[in-house]
Amino acid sequence: MDDFSLLLDLHRRNYRQGPGGDAQTELAITLAGLNRKQPLKLADIGCGTGASTLCLARHLNAEITAVDFLPDFLESLKQQAESEDHSGRIETLEASMEELPFSENAYDVLWAEGAIYNMGFQNGIENWKRFLKPGGILVASEITWLTHDRPDEIQAHWNREYPEIDVASAKIGQLEAAGYSPIGYFTLPESCWLENYYAPLKDGFEAFLERNGNTDTAEAIVASELAEIELFEKFKAFYSYGVYIARKS
Ligand code: SAH
Known about the structure:
This protein is an alpha/beta fold. Helices cover 44% and strands 23% of the residues. Strands 1, 2, 3, 4, 5, 6, 7 and 8 form an 8-stranded mixed β-sheet that branches. The chain is globular. 38% of the residues are buried. It binds S-adenosyl-L-homocysteine. S-adenosyl-L-homocysteine (SAH) binds next to α3.
């Protein structure tokens, strides 16, 4: 198996493919001021296996389009949606977040947890805005510096991995400049990383290596995930995901 198929094999079995939490998805619903009874048209972009999609389906009266470019993730989401009796309200869509086949002014809410970085925050907020109805809500989580000053090691790491990382005030300024009114912001607590994302990932390493015959490539993937976890444990005071909630103005 190549690197990509191995990564897919490692991550598709997990409930989440990135840091997050049901309590934080619910907090974002509250801060967004979404009416839980009102019919809403919502798209969850970069939904993975659907942790946020399913949480949104449980709490809102929404017709949800769950978008990802990986069909395997969408298949897991479909199965879970069926087992929770939500399949009538969740439609999966295999598409690139950079070329969404949506009509203009079509959605009340666009949601993206741990995903917008794949096309870049600036690019995403500009590109997706046309799909929101006037007054529609964008909720996006994005890697964010928690402090003004950072140790060189972590600064250099993120400059390499995702140079768009910035402090919340800068991200909020980008939203304003792109024609949104920011209405809420909070950061994901470390439990969203360590308990909800990294712990289940770590628990799966042994079985993953066994399934894949302990090849060097599989070992390298585990080593790289472990390095990421170690980095977070060392520098978690300096970065997290920020959750940005904004209204199309
Ligand atoms: N929202 C989920 C998944 C986050 S991981 C969660 O919080 O658990 C990021 C997701 O974005 C992955 O499922 C990945 O397949 C998807 N993705 C990455 N690039 C993409 C692109 N260009 N178009 C659509 N989906 C993409």
